[in-house]
Structure formats: structure tokens, C-alpha cells
Amino acid sequence: MVIIENEKIAQIPVLHVVKEEKKQEPLPLIIFVHGFTSAKEHNLHFGYLLAEAGYRVILPDALYHGEREKNLTEKQLQLSFWNIVVRTIAEIEQIKEELNRRHLIEADRIGVAGTSMGGIVTFGALATYSWIKAAVSLMGNPCYEAFFDAQIAMAKKMRISIPFTDEQLQKEKERLAKYDLSLHPEKLQGRPLMIWHGVRDQVVPYQYTYEFYEQIKPLYQGNEERVKGIFDDKAGHKVTREAFLETVKWFVQHV
User: Fold this and answer.
1) Cβ proximity of 114 and 138 under 8 Å
2) pTM for the model
3) Measured in whole angstroms, how far is the alpha carbon of residue 97 from the centre of its chain?
């Protein structure tokens, strides 16, 4: 039987999904990160099927989301977007380390996935941690600098006031560079990566991930089965059932 426990790991509220009879055993781990303005509970279907397949699945609440909500205004939350992304990348490792200390994971079998903001986090985590064995980004974006520029351009076009100087914005962009997998594709090191994106996505445009997929394909020459791009021409900013099932399949195959 699959059980779902609401607990804190490394002081981070998470849903911990696992087969009850394997709860105390070292298991392969999947960390699944939700999207912007969402919460950990919204991805339980991923947790359930992955736990059924034998994984320990951790669904964390990102900063200012779910149990960590701070009643920020929509604008305050928007302005915190990249801080939330960078903080979540750090917290992925904290979660992994605590589970490792508790002897609950197989340290060489760890996958990371996420939707939208969680997909962006997934790409940044791949650029940061060599211990991730395989990953899935659903509606994410690996191009941190380009997406940052696009967000600022859109805000200016819509005449939304930005409470930062150009110098501050440049420093923030420079801070993001080390997480930008499109600038450091060699950091993939041939690890299995699946990318899913809806072509009609109006929130996180698919062109970024499509161009990145084309950019990295040559790096997988001879190991083409380790990289997969699915670009659904009927889908918008919503994960389809096909994408959900393909995600589970990907981890079963590679983690």
C-alpha cells in the first residue's frame, strides 16, 4: 500500500510518498517540484505512480508556497520568482542529504523533476549537482538569462514598475548565469533528460526548450535513448496525461 505522509525534511514541508512496507528501506529517490503559485499536493498523482513503481518520492513546498505561504501580494511574489528558484535548488540538496543521513535512499539512484517553475528548477539543479542520475522537465526553461531578460522586457512593455536599478538587474542576471544550463550544456554529462512542453504554452514559451533540445542532441550521439524531447502541438501550459505517463516511464527506465 502506498502511504502519503506530511512531514518536514531539512525543515522543509514535504509530502513523502512511499510503499508502506518499504518505508524504512533505502530506495531510489525522486524529488518532484511544483509550479509557481502551486503547492506540493498538486502533483500527488506523480508521487503515487512513482511510489507504486518502487521509488521514494518527495514533493516539497517551495519558498512562499503551500505551507510556506506568507500572504505576499501577487507583485511581491512575482518579484521573488528567481529567489524562489535558486532557494529551491539549494533545498533539493538539503532534502537529499537528510534522507541520506537517515539511510533511506540509494544515493546513486536519484531523479529530479518538476512542472513549470519546477521544470526551471530541474534544469538549474542539473547545472549544479552531478549526483542527479536522471531528470524530467515539464514546461520548464533552461535559459535562465534569456528568460530573465524576457520577463523584464515584458514588464516594461506592460509599464509595470520594477523596483530595481539597471545595475541591480544586471547583478541578478549574472547571479543566475551559473544555473543556466544553456550556457553550460556540458554539465549534463550525458545524463538522461526528458523535456516535455506544450507548443501553445503562453506562460513559459516552448521555443526555449525546443532550441535547447536541438542544442544538446549532438552531445548524446551514440546515446540517443538518453535524451527525449516531446513538444505537444495541441497542449498549452498544462501537463497532459501522456506527459505524466511518459515521466513515470522515463524514471523507471533510467533511475
Assistant:
1) yes
2) 0.96
3) 18
**14 CB-near residues (< 8 Å, 6+ apart):** 6, 7, 8, 40, 58, 59, 60, 61, 95
In whole angstroms, give the CA distance from residue 226 to residue 210: 16
Q: How many CB atoms lie within 10 A of CB 47?
A: 24
* 238 vs 255: CA distance, rounded Å: 25
Angle at the Cα of 226 from the Cα atoms of 222 and 227, rounded to 5 degrees: 105
107 grid coordinates: 544515493
Q: Which residue has the cell 533511475?
A: 255
Q: Please write the tens of the pLDDT for every residue from 94-147.
A: 999 999 999 999 999 999 999 999 999 999 999 999 999 999 999 999 999 999
Nearest-angstrom CA–CA distance, 29 and 91: 15
Q: Tell me, what DSSP letter sits at residue 165?
A: -
Over the Cα atoms of the chain, what is R_g? 18
Residues 6+ apart with CB under 8 A from 181: 123, 124, 126, 127, 142, 187, 188, 212
50 within 8 A of 81, measured Cβ to Cβ: no
Rounded CA separation 116/51 (Å): 22
